[in-house]
């Protein structure tokens, strides 16, 4: 007699994420600032600190003066290419102070450590890429030249220690430094309205909220502020299936996701007005990484770290946001087995630990519960599922348009800031979701149009047919555009 098969189920969401429904104001600073709640979504549970503890005054002093244009409108150290010497002259090694950042009960204060990480990562990028900024300013047609290939001990060691504690790579990242932990509110009582958002750190002119640099970053924050409903909707889908609840509740979860994505994409569309395409390449110099970049052919040595072996890290990228990966996992979107998809997987490490853990949980649950197969067994759920896929498509399509208009048309540099190929990487993921939509429509909804007694009625047809027509049209346009740009660039 063969032994009975044992089915092992992953923990429920509440078991895995005990703070998911907590009031963010009650969370202790010993928790990672990106602990996810249904109130804050993928934003940190508290607005980031703007001032570090007094012991880090030498770091703050440099950051008060380093931007190309300071807050008072006067040129800073980067304007005259004097940041490098100032760092070497003024900044002591404060690594030992990082572990002294503790809460009242003696736990490490991850909230403050994240702010220290943010500030060191800004200084590190500015230091390493300052020569590239000088090259670009003096002769942009010759490209970026070479960056510095040694990060001094006074920056490298404390940055590395913060990263160890937070379990993220020791380099500037989208959530932990450049965008989501880099904003404050002009007037706290007004909340997260776009006009009330301000940057804490910036490279060029971003401390002026009207600048394109500020607009580029703040638009991302404006989008992510709409993620609480996205998280809640995903939880409703998962928890209902875990508990054997009714299909109507699953459908309501999808409707929450759809409403959230409408708001997110409305904010996303504001990028065109908030950040001028012609001005993007200027501040973009400072958000490149080390991996797959011509500026760092031999990597970067972090002095005093990992036996001074050259290190490689991917740069800041909006692709590190968690909005679309959440839907990729929930909807079980299959990605092609290509080197481009491998880059997509590498980006996961650059998200905060709570984001990585939550996304991995959603991926596991979606597979375990068979969310895709469940959704396609009912016409109403199938259409909601397809409409959710359509938001992934439209989000990625808009991201492609940004890449095309802000970057591809304006520079021959072959890689994005994160180190992915600028022409082919986004189409890799965009094509995957388009293919999935067409496959579902052709195999599930299409045949119902002619089936007697089908519940795919005229109202459904009017909703779905125009959407699928757009998908097929964009699929054709995308293929032609990618082929054109690849031919022009010899890719």
UniProtKB/TrEMBL annotation:
Heme b binds at residue 399. The keyword Cytoplasm does not apply. It catalyses: L-tryptophan + O2 = N-formyl-L-kynurenine. Keywords: Dioxygenase, Heme, Iron, Metal-binding, Oxidoreductase. It comes from the Eukaryota. GO terms for biological process: L-tryptophan catabolic process to kynurenine. This is Indoleamine 2,3-dioxygenase.
